[in-house]
Design brief:
The chain is mainly α. The chain is built from 6 helices and no strands. It is extended. This is Stage V sporulation protein AB.
């Protein structure tokens, strides 16, 4: 019986490592980290940024899997939400930049003159949806 449990643990750990490695490879491949380093003129620190990204993923998984409570209160939750939203937004924009989604859409929809309005509307809609989702439980 214990051999089966050990085998399941090894398979689960291996699958988790493979998925996490693929995710972080995808993040690096999209150029999110390199783009941030380029925009902040700190390209000499890119290996440090990549290490921090991997460490953040590892610590986040440990907190999630072992359900470690972090006594940060409502302010900590708000700060985490802001940083999480920035991360997801940058990741989505990097993916959209790679795929050239917005330029193709703008040309086909013939709304090239209103690109700034479209981007602001997209940001406001995302923020409004996040607020509705956040305050729905209250």
């Amino acid at each position: 019986m214990w051999a089966q449990q050990v085998l399941l643990a090894v398979i689960g750990l291996s699958a988790g490592v493979a998925v996490a490695g693929g995710l972080f490879s995808f993040i690096v491949e999209l150029g999110v980290i390199a783009d941030f380093a380029d925009r902040t003129h700190t390209a000499d620190q890119i290996l440090f940024y990549e290490d921090c990204t991997a460490l953040g993923g590892i610590l986040g998984n440990l907190v999630y899997v072992f359900q470690i409570g972090i006594p940060a209160g409502d302010w900590g939750l708000a700060v985490f939400g802001i940083f999480g939203g920035i991360f997801v937004g940058c990741w989505a924009m990097a993916l959209a930049e790679i795929l050239n989604v917005f330029p193709v859409f703008m040309r086909r929809a013939r709304i090239v003159r209103y690109i700034s309005v479209f981007v602001i509307s997209l940001a406001l809609g995302k923020g409004f949806g996040a607020c509705v989702h956040l305050f729905q439980g209250w």
